[in-house]
Amino acid sequence: MSVRTRIAPSPTGDPHVGTAYIALFNQCFAQAQGGQFILRIEDTDRQRSTPESEKVILDSLRWLGLDWQEGPDVGGPHGPYRQSERGDIYRAYCDELVERGHAFHCYRTAQELEQLREALRESGRIALKPGDLALPLEEVEKRRAGGMPFVVRLQVPESGTCVIEDLLRGPIEIDWAQVDAQILLKSDGMPTYHLANVVDDHLMEITHVLRGEEWISSAPKHKLLYEYLGWEMPVLCHLPLLRNPDKTKLSKRKNPTSILYYQRAGFMPEALLNYLARMGWSMPDEREKFALEDMLEHFDIQRVSLGGPVFDVEKLSWLNGLWIRELGDELLADRLTDWLFNRENLLKVLPFARERMETFGDFAPLVSFLASGKLDLTEESFTGNRLALDEQKRLLQFALWRLEALRAWDRDSIFQAVKGLAASMGIKLKDFNAPLFVAISGTTTSFSVMDAMVLLGPELSRARLRQAIGTLGGAGKKVLKRWEKEYAVLA
C-alpha cells in the first residue's frame, strides 16, 4: 500500500507555525516515498470554526510552498474533507460501538461531573472511568424518557498497561488508570477529535500518522477504537514540540506563532519553511540553508531529534537574511513589491497619510511603521503619556485580551472594543489610546491608531502590543492571574 499521511488543522484562529511544522514533516515523509499527503479540516467546533479561518490556513500553507494531493480545495476520492460534512458517518460508527458494548450513553450533568472529579482528586485518582459514571438503570431510563441530553463515551479498561509503538520512540507504556472514558459524540451530535480522527484516518487510508508529542496521552484511546472497530492502526510517529527559548511550549505570549505575522513582517516563505525543517531535523551534510526540494531528496524520518526544538526568532531572522542576500537585485525588487510596496497597499494608506503631508518627503517617515516588524521601543517611549507606566502596561494587556477575542478585524469593531474597555476601566478614551499609539506606531503623532491596526492586520498589531508589554517589564504569573480576575469582572 502506498504511504499516505495527513494534516488536520482546525479553522478556529490564526494559522499556527506548529501546524506548518507538522504539515511539512507529513508532506516530506509521504512524498519522499512516492506517497500522498492529504489535508482535511477539523471543523466540528461549530462556535469557533469559520470559513474565513479555513481559507487563511490553506492560503498560508500554500504561501509556504506546501502542497497536498487531496483536500477540501482540490477534492479527491475520499471526501468530503471537512469533518462538519461527515456527521452521518461518525454517528453510524458511534452507534455501532454502542451496540457492541464498546461505548455507552452518559446522562451525567455538568454539576454531577464536577462533583465526581472533585471526589477523584481527593482520592488521588486522575481519570473518570465507566464505573464512576454509571447511573442506576431506572435513572438512565428516566433521563432518557425525559429527553435529557447525553454524550457517548468510550469504554476503557480500569487497570493494566497499554503499549503504543512509535516510529521514533519505540514502545511507549501508558497506564490505563490515566485514561478516562473519553467523550466520542457530544450532546449536539458532533464528534470529538478522537472519534473523527480515527474514522477519517481509516476511511482515507492513512498509513502513517505524524503528529505532535502532546497526542501521546491520547494514543491509548485511539488504539482502543481501532481494536473495537476491527481496523488496522496506522503507524504512529510523535514529533517533538516546538519550544520557546526558555524551553516552555511555544506560545504567542513569548513568541509570534501566527504564520500571518511572519508573512506580514517581511519574512521569506522559503526561509520560514527552511527554519521549520531545521526544528529537530538535519540534512546529512548538516548545512543550515536548504530548500524544500533538498529536504525531500534527503528526507529520513530517523534523522529527527527528540530533543525539544527551540523556535528562536533571532535565528530565523539570521537565516532569512541568508535567503535575502542570495536574491538578485531584480528578484529582490519583485519580492519587495509583492510583499508590501505595491499600488494596492499604497492606495490603502494614502487616505490616512494625505492630510498630514506637505511634501512627498513626509510620506515615508509618516508610514514607516507599517513596513516594520518590531519597533524600536523603550520605557521612555511611554513616559510622555498621562498614565503611570504600570497602569499603561495593565491597559495594554487588557487591550490585547480584548483584541484577541475579536472575530472581525475592521475599524468599527476595533473602535467599539477599545471604547468599551476604556469606559469599563474608567479611563478617558484619549488617555487610553495614547499607549496604544506608541505600541502600534512607535509614536503619539501617527494617524488614527484604529486605522493603523486595520492596515497592519491582527497578527502584527497583537504582536506589537505584546512587545510593548514586554518593553514595560512584562508581568509575572501572580500579576497576570490578578489581572485576569480583574479583566473577567470588566468583561
TrEMBL record:
Q: Which Gene3D superfamilies does the record match to this protein?
A: 1.10.10.350, HUPs
Query: Do the record's keywords include ATP-binding?
Result: yes
Q: Where in the cell is it found?
A: Cytoplasm
Q: Which Pfam families does its entry note?
A: Anticodon_2 (PF19269), tRNA-synt_1c (PF00749)
EC number(s) on file: 6.1.1.17
**Domain Glutamyl/glutaminyl-tRNA synthetase class Ib catalytic stretches:** 3-318
Q: Which reaction does it catalyse?
A: tRNA(Glu) + L-glutamate + ATP = L-glutamyl-tRNA(Glu) + AMP + diphosphate
Q: Where are the transmembrane segments?
A: none
The keyword Nucleotide-binding belongs to this UniProt entry's keyword annotation: yes
- Where does this protein hold ATP? K252
Q: Which residues form the Aminoacyl-tRNA synthetase class I anticodon-binding domain?
A: 332-469
Q: Which UniProt keywords apply?
A: Aminoacyl-tRNA synthetase, ATP-binding, Cytoplasm, Ligase, Nucleotide-binding, Protein biosynthesis
* Gene Ontology MF annotations: glutamate-tRNA ligase activity
Q: Which SUPFAM superfamilies match?
A: An anticodon-binding domain of class I aminoacyl-tRNA synthetases (SSF48163), Nucleotidylyl transferase (SSF52374)
* Membership in a protein family: Belongs to the class-I aminoacyl-tRNA synthetase family. Glutamate--tRNA ligase type 1 subfamily.
Its function, per the record, reads:
Catalyzes the attachment of glutamate to tRNA(Glu) in a two-step reaction: glutamate is first activated by ATP to form Glu-AMP and then transferred to the acceptor end of tRNA(Glu).
Give the quaternary structure: Monomer.
Record-given protein name: Glutamate--tRNA ligase
Give the originating organism. Answer: Microbulbifer spongiae
What is the primary gene name for this protein?
gltX
